[in-house]
Write a structure and sequence with these properties.
By secondary structure, this protein is α/β, with parallel strands linked by helices. Helix content is 37%, strand content 16%. β3 (81-84) and β4 form a beta hairpin. The radius of gyration is 19 Å and the shape is globular.
Length: 305
Amino acid sequence: MTDTPASFLQPVRLVSTDLDGTLIDFRPNIPADAVFFDRIETARSRARGGEPFLWTMNTGRWWQSLSVEMMVRNFPLMPDWVILTEREIYRIHNGRALGEYGWNRRCAEVHRELFASAEPFWKELRDFIESQTGAELLPDPGSPVALRSRTDHEADRISQFAETRLAAWPGLSIVRNGVYMRFCHSDYDKGSCLRYLQEIVGVPPSATLAAGDHYNDLPMLTRRSAHWLVCPGNAIEPVRSVVLAQGGYTAGLPFASGVVEGWDALLVQAGAEPLAPVPASVPVAEEEAIAAAATGAGVEGADPE
């Protein structure tokens, strides 16, 4: 192996990516852009033994759903770690997800106690959803109430109704991705999980890149969690604004192509060696995908599969 260029030694050693809407198109069965996996493979090959390069998938999906999706989408590589349901941490070893026992056990206990204490809230929320909206309640072992709204406006109404009552239940928070919604303890989100993973693997926020497209990605799209912030071209406007305000990169290209665009561009801005030339513009063929993504047809908020 050749020596790693000095300019690439430390810039990015951990990449945390959302899945749906960030790496993959919302339309089913369309493979993720192979250029992203080329970047991961290149970064792994350039890393030195004492400072490995790591990729974690930071998703709202459960492991079975994630593993099936990676197979259907023809992922040629597995992540090194996965953060599942936006709260549990697993290391991938030989294709299996091995749980970070201490964190996951505490997470389960905290949620069990909080959810049990909030039973009056769940009843009131279910009654509102069933009588005042057309949203569909979904089975979700990780949330007493999980739902899919018909429109973003309807999801806004439900979110506003819930928020007016959350003050009575400290620690309870909404996790939303487009028309999908679930609930969790406010101490557990994509950002807190990423920061705990950084402690495990010994990589600081200054050497971490985070990429996401929707509301539930915002907790990891902060400089507290990662200094290298990217959102693809299909990201919703609130996410784009947050990323830009912190000096991050908002891509023109959608999905995985946009993540690579941002990754390479940030390396160039920092004076580091890019992994490959930066894509210059949005191909015409991608414009329809960006338009479709703007409808907010995400699938992660309460994984229905």
